[in-house]
Amino acid sequence: MSGPKSFLLTAELADYLVAHGSPPDAVQQGLIDRTAELGVVAGMQVAPEQGAFLTILTRAIGARRAIEVGTFTGYSALCIARGLPDDGELICCDVSEEWTAVGRTAWETAGVAKKIDLRIAPAVDTIKALGAGETFDLAFIDADKPNYRNYFEGLLPHIRTGGVLLVDNVLWGGNVINDEANDDNTVAIKAFNDYVAAEPRVEAVMLRSATASRCAARSRPRGSRIGWWA
Fold first, then answer.
1. Residue 93's closest CA among 172, 170, 147?
2. In angstroms, what is the C-alpha Rg of the chain?
3. What share of the chain is helix, strand, coil (3-state, %, to 5)?
4. Residue 29 CB neighbours (<10 A)
5. How far apart are CA 193 and CA 39, in angstroms?
6. Contacts from 32-41 at CB under 8 Å and sequence distance 24+?
7. Taken in order 17, 21, 24, 25, is the CA torsion positive or negative?
C-alpha cells in the first residue's frame, strides 16, 4: 500500500482552503456566528468547506429529493437545499425545536425554506414511516453515532441506484485507530465503518474533510448505493 497523500490541516491551511473555494455568503456567515453563540455545541456544525461540497455534490448528481439525519442549526440543510432545483425537496430529521429554529430563520432569509420539510421526531421513526416506494437521490447522516447503522440500513432501500449517501465523523478525531478509545461513540463508529466496508450493496470511499466523512453510492451494476465521508 502506498503512503498517504495527505496531511493534518492547520488553522492557517483551513483558512486558505475556505478562501480559495466558495466561502460562506452573508446568510451562511450569519448562521455560523449565531451557532457559535450556543457555546461548545457549536462544534456539531459542519465546516464551511463541507457545506460548499454538499451544495456542489447535490447539483452535480442532479438531486431532486434529499434527506438529512441530524439538522442541528441548519447549515448543512441550507447548503443541500441550495443545490436542489426550485421544486426540489429536502426532508430534515431532528429532535430539537430549539436548535432547528435557528436554522429556520436562515432558510427563510436564503429563500430555501419552501424546499425543506423539517420533521421533529426520532429519525429512526421518521425513516420507518417513509413510504415503501419513496426514494431519494442523496442522504446525509450527521447525528448520534450509536444509531449510525440503524440510519444507514433504514435509508439504504430508499436511495436510488446511483444515489449518494454521506456520513459525517467517520474517523472521529482519529480515535478509530486508537485501541484505548472505548467510549460508546468510538465503538459505534468503528463497528459502523467495518459494516459499510463489507456491505455488498454499496461502493464506498472515505474522504478526509474537516471532520472526516464517508461517501457511499448505490452502485449501478449490483443495484447498490454509495456513501460516507471522514
1. 147
2. 17
3. 45, 20, 35
4. 12
5. 30
6. 32/75, 34/73, 34/102, 34/106, 35/72, 35/73, 35/75, 35/102, 38/73, 38/99, 38/102
7. positive
Q: In the numeric block, which cell numbers belong to residue 150?
A: 440503524
Residues 4-28 as b/e (b if ≥16 CB within 10 A, e otherwise) read eeeeeeeeeeeeeebeeeeebeebb
User: Beta strand 65-69 with 89-94: parallel, antiparallel or unpaired?
Assistant: parallel
List 89's β-bridge partners, or say none: 65
Q: Record the cell numbers describing residue 14, joined without a space.
A: 483551513
Q: Which three cell numbers, joined as nine digits, stand for 170?
A: 467517520
The CATH-assigned architecture of domain 11-226 is 3-Layer(aba) Sandwich (3.40)
pLDDT in tens, the chain (230 residues): 555 545 567 788 878 888 888 889 999 999 999 999 999 999 999 999 899 999 999 999 999 999 999 999 999 999 999 999 999 999 999 999 999 999 999 999 999 999 999 999 999 999 999 999 999 999 999 999 999 999 999 999 999 999 999 999 898 888 888 988 889 999 999 999 999 999 999 999 888 765 545 556 655 544 444 454 44
Domain limits, the chain: 11-226
Q: Which amino acid, one-letter code, is at 52?
A: A
Q: How far apart are CA 96 and CA 93, in angstroms?
A: 9
Tell me the C-alpha to C-alpha distance, in Å, between residue 20 and each of 49, 78, 127, 207: 10, 21, 37, 19
